[in-house]
Model the fold of this input.
Amino acid sequence: MKIIVTGGAGFIGSAVIRFLIQNTEHTVLNLDKLTYAGNLESLKVVDQDPRYSFVKADICDFVEVKKIFDSFEPDAVMHLAAESHVDRSIDGPGEFITTNILGTYNLLDISREYFQKLSDEKKASFRFQHISTDEVYGSLGETGLFTEKTPYDPRSPYSSSKASSDHLVMAWYHTYGLPVLMTNCSNNYGSYHFPEKLIPLVILNAVDGKELPVYGKGDNVRDWLFVDDHARALCTVLEKGVPGQSYNIGGNSEKKNIEVVQTICDILDELRKKDDGTSYRDQITFVQDRPGHDKRYAIDAGKIKAELGWEPKESFETGIKKTVQWYLDNEWWWKPIRDNKYKGERLGQG
Done:
């Protein structure tokens, strides 16, 4: 297939492209605006492959994106381009409304017009895959899991914008017959993760000798999904998923935030011992909670396992150790970001 991946220079998008180029015969066009979180260095291992190409474009630019569709003639679209950090959505929701809602609308309408001109054979195989988040479902109590039938109940500007885009995607399926696929994933972690997010922030602040800020009591629960497992899941859905269906993707790894931070500290105690013999846990500090902080997310990934045969390969214990080691070994990737884009300061205080 010829696949357009939007947001392919981001964390999950770059993982998807690396997987596609290294494990399939598909041809990939990376369409990315290169915002603060976009980094082409994340694609160095595949960017010389003849099946990979990149074009800098904004999904909100209807005319430019339409030109890209007409020239590339995709067989599928994997739509990952999005503003994605809850804290930033609290400080500046406008970008989230524009990119996540209006940008998705643009892609849907361009795809609809493109799809309608295809031959019957090409129409049968074309797919528009929309990658979303479990945060659209809101907050769980102590028990229960999010399923594909869980009602939407978003609480932040970020999750509300993603919920809006999800509804648009399904509307284009029901109204126009666009063959869409949708996935909602739990929290991703792994290599090439922009260091404003919890896990890379903790790793890098720890080795810098800085405080490790934990919101509230650290008892908010998330399900953690290794990004390479997620990339494999997305490609499985693209190739095997049923149009009009959504698939929840989770890592089967529920952890309290404080447990995540403590685990990282313990791994660093093993891999990079401090000269004074103290533990990285001593750097943990509790800070005022994020406004509207959802208490618990947990994914039931039974549908994708039963229907498409996917399940995660990495446990949290194996994945987090690989992640910490990657950041210790790849200062070349994250140091320019810390020097020039994001130094580890607190975001999202409203």
User: Anything to note?
Assistant: The CA atoms of residues 169 and 298 lie 23 Å apart.
